[in-house]
Amino acid sequence: MTPVEEERPRALLAGASRRWVRLLPWAVAFVLCVALLPTTLVVLTADYGLNGGAAAALAVAQAAPLLLAVVRPLHAWYVVLVADVAGALVLLTVDFPERLLWPFPPMEIVGYVGLCLALGLRERRRTLLLVWLATAVANVALGFAPPHGFGARGLLFTILGGVALLLGGALRERSEVQRRLVEQETISEAERGRRTLLEERARIARELHDVVAHHMSVITVQAGTAEYRLDSLPPDVREEFTSIAATARESLGEMRRLLGVLRNEEAHGELVPQPGLAQIGQLVEATARTGGPVEFAPCAADADDDVPEAVGLSAYRIVQEALANVVRHAPGARTRVSLSVTGPDQEHGARLTVLVVNGPPPEPPAAPLETSGTGHGLVGMRERVRIIGGTLDTGPLPDGGFRVAARLPLTERDLT
């Protein structure tokens, strides 16, 4: 954005979301200008007896700046106040009936009130106070030379202008507070999503640690006992096994120290062995007993052996979160959980497909069954799938149900 664009003034209510609200100031200013200009000309000439040329000049000076007030209300106020004061002084040169208002006729008061409302919507409190004081000073100063005596009616200009300034300022400050609240809610929502993502990543890291630590422990044991299990190992081979066991123990220690950073005081329950494909059936049975009918189609028995532990853990967590969402948002809905291993093919290696599909609930719940959730359950699913290089497809179904489909790679080529 160039400096010229930054200094370019914006119209009143230009930031409103609705188009008719953005156009409202222009419409009001146009109506006031079109209505007040001829009215001022007629009243000043017919009622006050002012010369036609002077009346036309005053009418233009007092009404036309109202269009400028939409963009630069303070500049328009300078012009209108000078024109109103000049009009009051000019009226002293003619003889008009005592019943008519002076120093400011009614049409000038109407235009000035609209101008003050525009000022209140744009300027700060200090500026509004100075504007009102200038208005009061001008009104009182003119009252020292009244043609027919200074009455209470002459104060309408100051009183109504102050009310308009106060109303416009209150509306502007209320809009500003609402805008800041929306911005703060947006920032809070973004921070909440980011925190949820980081927490989920830490949880995934803790779970993957248990999987990797198991393999590292096996490597350590096998390398450390090789010289006792295998006869007549050459010295260099025995030394190599000893080095592998030492490196594995060192790596395992580093992982445990890292886990100490990731774990918190509430993570003691995660020390149990991590679940996998074999436990999904138990999860489905538990959900069916409490949450509604659930069908389960496991993959072939011999396919379980081809699924890495990290992939099996991710599949379990995805099914767990999907079923939890069914219980929360569609209690009693018929649900189907299926696991299948496909491939390999020319484009991809072997993949595990996890599919959870639920129909609409039998009847809408009177109230949510759970109100303390973060609403970011899908974040954890996506993060797990992303880490192992898979894909996740989620979305509502035409009948009111929901579908979760995850495709997780099983081969080393896809995992890397």
From TrEMBL:
Pfam families: HATPase_c, HisKA_3. Residues 314-411 form the Histidine kinase/HSP90-like ATPase domain. The keyword Membrane applies. Keywords: ATP-binding, Kinase, Membrane, Nucleotide-binding, Phosphoprotein, Transferase, Transmembrane, Transmembrane helix, Two-component regulatory system. GO terms for molecular function: kinase activity. Residues 200-265 form the Signal transduction histidine kinase subgroup 3 dimerisation and phosphoacceptor domain. InterPro entries: HATPase_C_sf (IPR036890), HATPase_dom (IPR003594), Sensor_HK_TwoCompSys (IPR050482), Sig_transdc_His_kin_sub3_dim/P (IPR011712). It catalyses: ATP + protein L-histidine = ADP + protein N-phospho-L-histidine. The chain crosses the membrane at residues 20-44, 50-69, 76-94, 100-121, 128-145, 151-171. Its EC number is 2.7.13.3. This is histidine kinase.
